[in-house]
Structures are given as structure tokens and as C-alpha cells.
UniProtKB/TrEMBL annotation:
Species this protein is from: Halioxenophilus aromaticivorans
Lineage, broadest ranks: Bacteria, Pseudomonadati, Pseudomonadota, Gammaproteobacteria, Alteromonadales
Keyword terms: Bacterial flagellum, Cell projection, Cilium, Coiled coil, Flagellum, Secreted
Coiled-coil regions listed in the entry: 421-448
Entries under InterPro entries matching the protein: Flagellin_hook_IN_motif, FliD, FliD_C, FliD_N
Ranges for domain Flagellar hook-associated protein 2 N-terminal: 10-107
Annotated protein name in UniProt: Flagellar hook-associated protein 2
Gene field: fliD
Length: 481
């Protein structure tokens, strides 16, 4: 590897000279690329902001055009401590008067007492029944205590929906069985196949028998031993406009079309005896529409704020000139806003007079181009012209569909904004390529300049040496004279 010392022959600062020439060569092209990159990046960011704001706007337009919004129902209940309810779009508006005489309850029993939870009971097979279903639990020497039996029941994978626990009362430990399901049809029973050969006595595993109705038709009329019924099963009993309804569950579905009732508690005896009722009223879900309209206005105003920021002109009287947004004077932004505003002022001719335009709902544009809402006017329209509001926003001629069609060139596949972003990104990619080529060209210029200056330096060094030699000869000759 050779080491080059530039400027030794000539005394010139070749490095500084070459770098100055190189920078002078690079600067104009570099500045053009920097300006192009800055302008393109700003424009790309602005178009992205515009596209994102438009997407948010179209989302809320779609919400307004959703026909399910105008089928929604809401429910009010006179006493939500006693009753809850949900409704779907199939429910008809109207009012109902309800009375609740009793709630549905599950069956709960306690078998006869033994000394303790650790007491050995016996072996065999327990069959636990709930309504028409049952499952078997095998009890052997590994789990023949009261606690072991409890765990075997609860952990059995075929358990049909009963829970076992132990309560210690004054007489001893009792196995408590609770049914998960409510209603008369879900009564609980226990039958036993005892390994001691007698499945109905009080000794061994059969001590846990609770079979008041002789489920297996043994013929003894039923066996409960000293078991206790802690809670009797019962159906819910209620009256809707005087009509009797019984249900095994406290969740009463579709007794009223489209309405699911959840009974929480029975009325007091006094209220029931006095004929007091619980009012249940189904109405159109006006609140959901009002919320969507308000959200539409908020999103529209946010969209217009973004447009204003991107297209703003701030007059500056100083020497720096006016300040402008990245899309100031841009025809795409201008045409987009014009298209949207046209649809805002277009009506639905099929609607009755007074319900054809957004202004009929209290939606107007202020001097700053922002939408405002007269809530009282909207509430009045919701109360008096509910169906017409749906027709104003939905359907082929409704606001949402018209807006979607009008803006398809800005939102559909291969839309104007998307193609523009692609073009701007390609420009940025091209800037990178042009920078690389500029670097390559400048490297060649730099190498050429060094080569030229090094050659000149060498020549000047040689000439200087010759001059020094000639000068020294002349000096010698003069001395000789």
C-alpha cells in the first residue's frame, strides 16, 4: 500500500482545493434532491393524513347507513330490582304490565347426618338424579368418607349439574346436594347400589339415599331417612297483562316477541296482593341514533379541521413570505371537499316534506364550515318522524349510499389518493437512487481531480528541483569568477 503526501512538491493544500471543487460540484444537485425529498415527504404525509381522515369519515357515514341502527329497540322497566330485560329488533313497541308472584328456585337437600366429614360411609355406586337426567359415581375404599364422596361427585366428568358440599349442624355432618338448574322439572334425588347388599337401609352407603318418589320403582314408596329438604324447587310464576306465565328458569325468553326477561326477585306479598304492577315499555332506540348523528358531526368536523390545516394560507407581512399548507391550492383536496358538501345539501325526494334534508334534523353548517346540531330539533324528529329518519340515511337514495358512491374515486380500490401516495413514494425511492448515482459521479470527479493535482504537484516539484539545481550551479560559477 502506497502512502501519498499531497502538496509536497508544490506546497499547495491539494486536499482543501479538491474538496472545495467537489463540494461546489455536488451542492447544486444535492440541494435539488434535498428540496425534492422535503417537498415530496411533506406532500406524502399530507395525502396520508387526508386519506386517514377520509377513512374515519366514511366509517361514520357507514354507521349512519346501517339499517339495523333504525330497527333498534330500547326497554324501560319500572323496577329493575325485580326485573331486567333485553330486546332485539323483532320486538314491537308498546307497554306491558307485569306481576311476579314467585321466582324459579333450584332443589337443595341434605342427607342424614354422620359423625364427621372424615367418617367412613361405605362402598357401592351412588346415582345422582336431576330431573330426567342422572349420572353414577363409584365409591370404593379410596373415597368412602363423606368428604371423599363430596369430592367424587364434584369431580366426576359426567356430572349433570349438581354441586356437593358438607354442612355440620347440631346432629353431625351432612352431605348437601344442590341442583344448578331451577324449576320443578329439575328435582334432585339420590339412589344407591350398596355393596353391603341392602340399598335402602340406614347403614353403609345407602344411608345417603334421598328418593322420596321411588324413582326406580322399588316398591317401598320412597326413602329419605333423616334427610332434610333445604330448598324446594319451583317454577317462576308471573303475569303479563293478566296472562299467566310459568317458567322453569328465571330467564324467560320470547314470551313477548323479541324480549328476554330476567326475573330477579318476586314482588312483596303486599304489592302482589294489591295488584301493583311493573311497567315494561319498548320503544325505538332513539338514543343510539342520536349518538351516531353526534358522532358523525364530530368526525366530519375533525375531517374538515385536517383539510383546513393542510390547505391553509397564513399571510405573513414579513420578509419570509406567506406560510402555506402542504396541499394549499391542491385540486384533489378542493374537489373532495366540494363533493362532500354537495351530498350534505342533497335531499331524499321520496321522504315527506320537512324530512328530506339533514337540516330538517337540525344539522347545519356554520361560517367556519363546521357542522352544528340543534339537539332539540333532532329529538323532535326522532319522536315524531322516526321511520323517515331511517329513510333519510339508508337505501339507494339515502345519504350514506349517495356519499359512498360520490366518493368512490377517493376511497375505492386504486383510488386517487392511493395512486398519488404510490407516485410520491416512487419519487422518494427515485431520490435515493439519484443520491447513489450522485455519490458515484462525485467520487469519480474527486478521483480525477486528485489525479490531476497530484500530477501537477509532481511536475512542479520536479521543476523546483531543477530550478534549485540550476541556481546552485550559477552560484558556484560566480564564486569561481
Amino acid at each position: 500500500m502506497s502512502i501519498t503526501f499531497n502538496g509536497i512538491g508544490s506546497g499547495l493544500d491539494i486536499d482543501s482545493i479538491v474538496q472545495a471543487i467537489v463540494e461546489a460540484e455536488r451542492a447544486p444537485a444535492q440541494n435539488r434532491l434535498d428540496r425534492l425529498e422535503t417537498d415530496t415527504t411533506e406532500e406524502l404525509s399530507a395525502v396520508g393524513q387526508l386519506s386517514s381522515a377520509l377513512s374515519d369519515f366514511m366509517t361514520v357515514v357507514e354507521d349512519l347507513g346501517d339499517e339495523d341502527l333504525y330497527r333498534g329497540r330500547s326497554v324501560s322497566i319500572g323496577d329493575r330490582e325485580l326485573l331486567d330485560a333485553t330486546v332485539d329488533e323483532s320486538a314491537q313497541t308498546g307497554s306491558y304490565q307485569l306481576q311476579i308472584e314467585q321466582v324459579a328456585t333450584s332443589h337443595k337437600i341434605a342427607t342424614q347426618a354422620v359423625a364427621a366429614g372424615s367418617s367412613t360411609i361405605g362402598t357401592g355406586t351412588l346415582t345422582l338424579h336431576m330431573g330426567n337426567s342422572s349420572f353414577d359415581v363409584v365409591i370404593d375404599e379410596e373415597n368412602d368418607t363423606l368428604a371423599g364422596i363430596r369430592d367424587a361427585i364434584n369431580n366426576d366428568p359426567s356430572n349433570i349439574g349438581v354441586r356437593a358440599s358438607i354442612i355440620n349442624d347440631d346432629t353431625g355432618a351432612r352431605l348437601v346436594i344442590t341442583g344448578d338448574e331451577t324449576g320443578l322439572e329439575n328435582t334432585v334425588a339420590i339412589t344407591v347400589e350398596d355393596d353391603d347388599g341392602n340399598s335402602r337401609d340406614t347403614g353403609g352407603l345407602s344411608a345417603l339415599t334421598f328418593d322420596p318418589n321411588d324413582i326406580n320403582s322399588v316398591g317401598d314408596g320412597g326413602v329419605t331417612h333423616d334427610a332434610k329438604e333445604l330448598a324446594t324447587p319451583q317454577d317462576a310464576l308471573l303475569y303479563i297483562d293478566g296472562l299467566t306465565v310459568t317458567s322453569a328458569s328465571n330467564n324467560v325468553e320470547n314470551v313477548i316477541d323479541g324480549v328476554n326477561l330476567n326475573i330477579l326477585s318476586a314482588q312483596s306479598e303486599e304489592d302482589y296482593a294489591n295488584g301493583n304492577t311493573i311497567n315494561l315499555t319498548i320503544t325505538n332506540d332513539q338514543a343510539a341514533i342520536s349518538d351516531t348523528v353526534n358522532n358523525f358531526i364530530d368526525v366530519y368536523n375533525s375531517f374538515m379541521s385536517v383539510v383546513d390545516q393542510l390547505t391553509v394560507v397564513v399571510v405573513n407581512e414579513g420578509s419570509t413570505g406567506n406560510l402555506t399548507g402542504a396541499l394549499t391550492g391542491d385540486s384533489t383536496a378542493r374537489n373532495l371537499v366540494s363533493t362532500i358538501r354537495t351530498q350534505l345539501s342533497t335531499g331524499v325526494e321520496e321522504n315527506p316534506d320537512g324530512m328530506q334534508f339533514l337540516v330538517n334534523l337540525g344539522i347545519t353548517t356554520n361560517d367556519e364550515g363546521q357542522l352544528t346540531l340543534d339537539s332539540a330539533k333532532l329529538d323532535k324528529a326522532l319522536a315524531n318522524n322516526f321511520d323517515d329518519i331511517g329513510a333519510l340515511f339508508t337505501g339507494e337514495n339515502g345519504f350514506a349510499k349517495r356519499m359512498e358512491t360520490a366518493l368512490e374515486g377517493y376511497t375505492g380500490a386504486g383510488n386517487i389518493l392511493e395512486l398519488r401516495q404510490d407516485r410520491l413514494q416512487n419519487t422518494l425511492n427515485d431520490v435515493d437512487t439519484r443520491r447513489e448515482k450522485l455519490d458515484e459521479r462525485i467520487s469519480l470527479v474527486e478521483a480525477r481531480l486528485y489525479s490531476q493535482y497530484q500530477a501537477a504537484d509532481s511536475l512542479i516539484g520536479s521543476l523546483n528541483n531543477t530550478l534549485s539545481y540550476l541556481t546552485s550551479i550559477g552560484t558556484i560559477n560566480n564564486d569561481d569568477d
